[in-house]
TrEMBL record:
Biased composition (Basic and acidic residues): 16-26
Residue numbers spanned by region Disordered: 1-26
Biased amino acid composition, Polar residues: 1-12
Protein known as: DUF2383 domain-containing protein
Length: 180
């Protein structure tokens, strides 16, 4: 499976402010509703149909997490009297305790960017784009592995959270394929 139109960096845009009530609602929605619901059909002759609603939901979730990270960086810079636009190319920015704590919450066990949540989104996406067809499992697994290899190539070595995300993703993927 070839993944196209992926940009290594995204331009930074002004994110919308996320109110604390919305964060709570989003978090509870994610836990209460599964991202992908697959209903097996007996008709194998139909053409491939992917779960458009799940793909759209996963895209929204990714956009919200991305906006949250941007907001975290912008607020940290603001506390230091800086902005992204005025930041020098080689200027060093110190990560303050507030930003560090917020980032830890994001990647923590219950955070939207934690290994558990990200691995689940990866598997949900694979299920959604395959239409729940496990005959496409090898292609999907290969694409996931390639994505992690590309990230490792860019970073030199994957951080521990990425290694844990990969491990959990493969476990969940194999469980789906083996219908556990």
């Amino acid at each position: 499976m070839k993944v196209e139109n992926i940009q290594p960096t995204q331009p930074i845009v002004q994110p919308e402010k996320v109110e604390s009530e919305k964060k709570t609602t989003i978090k509870s929605e994610v836990k209460e509703t599964p991202a992908a619901v697959y209903e097996k059909t007996e008709n194998k002759e139909t053409s491939h149909v992917y779960d458009k609603n799940t793909v759209a939901k996963l895209k929204r979730d990714r956009q919200q997490a991305h906006a949250h990270l941007i907001r975290l960086v912008q607020e940290m810079l603001k506390r230091q009297g800086k902005t992204l636009e005025l930041l020098g190319e080689n200027e060093i920015v110190e990560v303050d305790e507030t930003a560090r704590m917020e980032a830890q919450a994001l990647i923590g066990p219950d955070g939207p960017l934690g290994a558990e949540a990200v691995s689940q989104r990866l598997v949900d996406f694979a299920i959604a784009i395959s239409g729940g067809d496990t005959s496409k499992a090898e292609t999907l697994k290969s694409a996931i592995e390639q994505g992690f290899k590309e990230a490792e190539k860019m970073l030199g070595e994957l951080p521990e959270i990425s290694k844990e995300t990969y491990r959990l993703t493969m476990e969940k993927f194999d469980a789906w394929v083996n219908e556990e």
